[in-house]
């Protein structure tokens, strides 16, 4: 029986995570802590005895750098890798580059929470989680899932909200349930899928 392995990893801490700035499609690199988190994620995958046939990442440096560091730890630096902006972070629009605490002071706690965690309310000029799902899901279904179902062990390094969108589908979460789902930086989530693409098992390697 083939493994149908799919591992999702949010990038390590970025410079803008550290500064508490809305990031979205802006392109800061990892901090020292983010580099350590990415290496640690690779070590955790190796400790589980996992290796991969293909990798996918976004068009953004912090996810690509995280993938590179993980692959170095696993000893798979030459792994075939596809980069695509379908896996990019949710576009934060006009909020990009603003400090999250300053935004709360300006627009209020509740409004900022709606922009960050509601399912279908986009931030001004940006994408809601629903909008993010509308580009991430077709890419997953067309470009990633067929390989997983053929037994290609697959690693994805991407972003909090592009991965939350995929997790919503994989775990069949409602818009209410996905609101409360947070993804820690550098914490691999290891899925094994059934032949019908539903989740057979999930192991969260956070902590
Ligand atoms: O793009 C960002 O600012 C973060 O990476 C994710 O932001 P969030 O925690 O507000 O979803």
Automatic annotation (TrEMBL):
Keywords (alphabetical) are:
Gluconeogenesis, Glycolysis, Isomerase
Q: Name any one GO molecular function.
A: phosphoglycerate mutase activity
EC number(s) in its UniProt entry?
5.4.2.11
Task: Report the top EC class in one word.
Answer: isomerase
Instruction: List residues binding substrate.
Output: 10-17, 23-24, 62, 89-92, 100, 116-117, 160-161
Per its UniProt entry, which superkingdom is the organism in?
A: Bacteria
- Which catalytic reaction applies to this protein? (2R)-2-phosphoglycerate = (2R)-3-phosphoglycerate
The record's function comment reads: Catalyzes the interconversion of 2-phosphoglycerate and 3-phosphoglycerate.
Query: What is this protein's record name?
Result: 2,3-bisphosphoglycerate-dependent phosphoglycerate mutase
Species the sequence originates in: Bradyrhizobium uaiense
């Amino acid at each position: 029986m083939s493994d149908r392995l799919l591992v999702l990893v949010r990038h390590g801490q970025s410079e803008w995570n550290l500064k508490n700035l809305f990031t979205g499609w802006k392109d800061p690199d990892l901090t020292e802590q983010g580099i350590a988190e990415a290496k640690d994620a690779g070590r955790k995958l190796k400790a589980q005895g996992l290796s991969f046939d293909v990798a996918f990442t976004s068009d953004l440096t912090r996810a690509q750098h995280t993938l590179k560091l993980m692959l170095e730890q696993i000893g798979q630096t030459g792994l075939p890798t596809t980069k695509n902006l379908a896996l990019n972070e949710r576009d934060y629009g006009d909020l990009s580059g603003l400090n999250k605490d300053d935004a709360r002071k300006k627009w209020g706690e509740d409004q900022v929470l709606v922009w960050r965690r509601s399912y279908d309310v986009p931030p001004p000029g940006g994408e809601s989680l629903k909008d993010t799902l509308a580009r991430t899901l077709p890419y997953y279904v067309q470009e990633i899932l067929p390989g997983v179902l053929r037994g290609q062990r697959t690693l994805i390094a991407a972003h909090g909200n592009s991965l939350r969108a995929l997790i919503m589908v994989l775990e069949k979460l409602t818009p209410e349930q996905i609101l409360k789902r947070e993804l820690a930086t550098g914490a691999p989530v290891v899925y094994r899928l059934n032949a019908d693409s539903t989740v057979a098992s999930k192991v969260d390697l956070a902590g």
